[in-house]
Amino acid sequence: MKKWLRTALISFFTISFVISAACEKQDQPSVQKVRVAEVTRSIFYAPQYVAISKGFFKKEGLDVELSTAWGGDKTMTSLLSGGSDIALVGSETSIYVYSQATKDPVINFAQLTQTDGTFLVARKKIDHFSWDSLNGSTFLGQRKGGMPQMVGEFVLKKHGIDPKQDLKLIQNIDFANIPSAFASGTGDYVQLFEPTASIFEQEGKGYIVASFGTESGHVPYTSFMAKRSFIKNNQATIQKFTRALYQAQQWVETHTAAEIAKAIQPYFKDTDISIIEKVVDRYKKQGSYATDPVLDEEEWNNLQAIMKEAGELPPHSDYSALVDNSFAKKTIEK
């Protein structure tokens, strides 16, 4: 073959390969990384882990980078400082930020859980529990101003117990250290999330006697939120995120506790699968997992009532200013 022809053919095939590779790259959907900070790692957030493990986020072209902040204040700091794009945390935190007259408020755009996720755990086994048993006891509660603590106080008052007068209330222990504090002997009762509550029960360290979620009714306990500027500049991303979440919520609603436990087990490697299944079943039965991402006004008003009762409700926490259901409603309509 003549040298010029060989050179021409090589050039032709090289150009063809480059063009083909470029076209193939264009055909592939672009993947966008989204940094999500969760307030804690909990089976309470099962739909979120399902959205990742079952590929619902991936299907929408999103690469979710999940980190655990271990506390509402730390989660919000991460979001406000730009360390994360989206936060999964209690809706009350958006109210606190808004009350500081920030120019870029945090907006709730998708609800994940619709009840409190904590349980009342007693140090001793009680065959016939009555809330009156807490009178005169030492109660190891959650962080002051946080949703778990406010719900805890709301439920106590509902049963005629003044948390400031009728018992010794401890709430100065860091969120991550509350379980170990109880295990080491602090308190007669403690307010715990799962799976810690069930693990304590299995190990004989405590016994679940009541559910704060059942007692307090529906509230936007944890929701996905982002700064208003991020939502405005990334509407397609927020829509995709909400759509993936809704698919996961529907999957959780229509599958058994055993199936859900298997799907989320990679996020709880140190927890026995039987405990995960037990916890999921408990949350499903009490209706803790929201079946769609819409955060309705009735739940928001219940949240504010609980905050007001705790003396933690700032002024000007309007539903319309801090909740954007447009992405959730658009997702459901389609």
TrEMBL record:
GO cellular component, one term: periplasmic space
Keywords: Signal
Compartmental location: Periplasm
Name of one Pfam family that matches: NMT1_2
Classification via SUPFAM superfamilies: Periplasmic binding protein-like II (SSF53850)
Presence of the UniProt keyword Signal in the record: yes
Gene3D superfamilies: Periplasmic binding protein-like II
Secretion signal span: 1-21
Membership in a protein family: Belongs to the bacterial solute-binding protein SsuA/TauA family.
PANTHER family listed in its UniProt record: ALIPHATIC SULFONATES-BINDING PROTEIN-RELATED, TAURINE-BINDING PERIPLASMIC PROTEIN
Protein known as: ABC transporter substrate-binding protein
Organism: Anoxybacteroides rupiense
